[in-house]
What we know:
Elements: E1 2-15, H1 16-28, H2 30-45, H3 56-60, H4 63-89, H5 92-110, H6 135-144, H7 154-165, H8 184-187, E2 194-198, E3 212-216, H9 242-253, E4 257-258, H10 286-302, E5 312-320
Antiparallel strand pairs: 1-2, 1-3, 1-4, 1-5
Region (Disordered): 266-302
Amino acid sequence: MCTSTATLLYGLWVTTASLAFAATAYSRLQPVARAIDLIHLRRRSGQLKLLREGDSALVMMPPEVLEQVKQQLLLVEKRVAELEQLAELRCDECLREDMMRSLLASATLRGARAEMLIYEAKYEWDTWGPPPACDGCWENLYEAGVDLLTTETTEITIKHIKSLLEPFGLCMPFDRVWNSDPGAEFRRRDFDSLSPISLPLRGTNASKYPQVEAEQDHQYEYSSSHAVANISPAIFDLPVDIHLDFASLVRTYGLEVADRTTVEILPSLPPSSSTDAQDDKPTTSKGDGAASAQGKEKKATKELNFVPVEPRWMLWSIGDPCI
């Protein structure tokens, strides 16, 4: 049967690839991150001890430098995760050609003996996106797909994403993604899919993010199905530093933010303010009153022009066909 779902969330959209690669980097660097945090903690408490001579530089290193080291390591590991994913899709012929081209280029630049030659393979397809004009790579792509949240490693990836978002008090509502092409979800070949990040909300089932779902049974061809949910006003009391949490997450892990909203929901009457009163000047004509109302409506609409990393309330609707 056909299904329609609606989800209320406060958050923003990021590319699924940047989120998945960041989560992989986060999981791999946990031992290093804990070590750096332990150094901070023991230095502040005066309990940091040197086991070898020459380690005093570590004690004198400013905390900001250690944080920069951790930040750079995260970005490096994120890039490594991206290259690893591409390596699984790259065909053997491209792999051989790129490695041979890199070897020849390195030999030409170095002019060294073959036994001393050190080179780094440089691949033509080295950025997340569609492959170059290669039938072998495209064939691998058609067979494997690129949906990072519906592969065999789905559970591991989602677990890492959950661990990444928890320290910021955020969550991924569920593992559904927004696809740029309506048919991409079925073909699993969308490099530009997006995933939502939001504040956690609680419904009747505490283990699942709340959503409203209506199923249409085709046994009743001319009927409609409905579902309604109560919304507690308390969910609109947002944490005072919520914008900083989102900004810190995006900046630290290099997440790519996108805006997927297509419509706006505005108050029936524009908000009034002291500046809208036109310095208490009376309206002299019907035309002036209409112009004033239009100005207020434009102002209310303009207030919805969010900056890229700014979270906002959104209503996400999904319509699924019969399976």
